[in-house]
Predict the 3D structure of the following.
Amino acid sequence: MTSLVLTDISQLTADGFEKLPDQTIYDVVNVNMSEKPDWLFDKNPNGKVPVLEVDGGDTLNDSFVIAEYLDEKYSYRPLHSRDPWKKAKDKLLIQLFNKVINALYKLFLDPNNLDKQSVDNIIGELIVFEEELDARGKPFFGGERPGMVDYMMWPWCERSDLLRIMGGDRWCLSKQKFQKLMEWRNAMKEDDAVKESYLEPTLHAKYFKSRLGGYPDYDIRV
Amino acid sequence: MTSLVLTDISQLTADGFEKLPDQTIYDVVNVNMSEKPDWLFDKNPNGKVPVLEVDGGDTLNDSFVIAEYLDEKYSYRPLHSRDPWKKAKDKLLIQLFNKVINALYKLFLDPNNLDKQSVDNIIGELIVFEEELDARGKPFFGGERPGMVDYMMWPWCERSDLLRIMGGDRWCLSKQKFQKLMEWRNAMKEDDAVKESYLEPTLHAKYFKSRLGGYPDYDIRV
């Protein structure tokens, strides 16, 4: 299968997951989301990324739908639990994390919103994840290795240092309050799939700065 | 397994799906969503229905997460396609239908919004479903039998006659434009699972009227 993954720099690309089998060839195309090209709407009427295009031109959109598709299609190392109950609980956790993503994205795109209230809201949501990780008693939400929850959360946790860069040290998470998430973050950075797509916070900051300036450097990784 | 399904009258209840195996016993508890009881927030911090509670008190929320859980747990007649690509496409279709649900719900809860523009918006969204059903060339989105898309859409299509009751015949869908969806609707009404939970449009209208009046008759089916 040949696939084309349309993404912008701020999205998890397919290589953020474990390497696909060798016979799977895919290209990544970064898209300027500030001035969307017309052809993007042919691939996805919503005009959003990511988009996965396969042989024959058929496409999927929505990062979670794409992630679950890849997980089912290439099932040699499933990211979702095989236990339907655990899988359902993980899906709810991913839904809940969308609140954190939305709040973070708003801050990244308009740093004027960066005040105590908005950061407190994010911290309030994150406590659920700290408690859940503690309750699971393993280094990752997926257990001994990262699973679907870990990989769906990661791109936004990788960017969380942006808050510190944008707002100074007072926006750091409390190490006492978020001990488990801090350990999780360090462990995630050692994961092969994460390493492969990892960008330094300063590079993320550079991208968002270019985007705020009206000229997003969407090929910043290239 | 004993389950408790918390729902209000306007939600699909678990018995809207094919009958669960005989050893599965579940109770349905209807909830007054205008004056939510405190215990609902113990079952689901969001305070939304449906909620599925299993032995031991653990819960799931979100109608689609619950539906997928039941589909995986009781897999003797899967509602989702086993083909990951088809399944992913169906999930996108269900996401798209959420736009119709949101638009319909707004109209049901505030009939003052019932104008040509809002109905045209719904019709615009529904055309995608008419074309998709036509392209699939089968009576149901799931093929020869209803599948996940069919059952996720159905509760709202069952209620669509409310528009006619509320707004008169001018809000009927065009039989020429929506021939496939009309045939689908008639076929769905013959499905055993649909029959079991089917409510006449006049009963739906009575419920929404009671809700608009401030005293929702949430046990209207009992």
